[in-house]
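Q: What structure does this chain adopt?
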Amino acid sequence: NPIGFHPRSDFDIVQWQNFVRNCRCKTLFCFTGAPRTAIKNDFKGLLLNHCNNASGSCKVVDCTGSYCSNDTSVILQTF
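A:
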């Protein structure tokens, strides 16, 4: 479930569930986000590092800067 997912209706949830059910995932875990460098031991930064070192079991889309801010297709490439 994406952190940025804010369903407005039951239909939004059903659509997301159908997307995930039909997805042919090649990885165990996906992370889309950016580290918050101002926060010591930031969980997002730790997760990003861990995922980058997971040798294929985790896929990362690094959203540092504004890379992911308005482009859903960039975020969905994680899946």
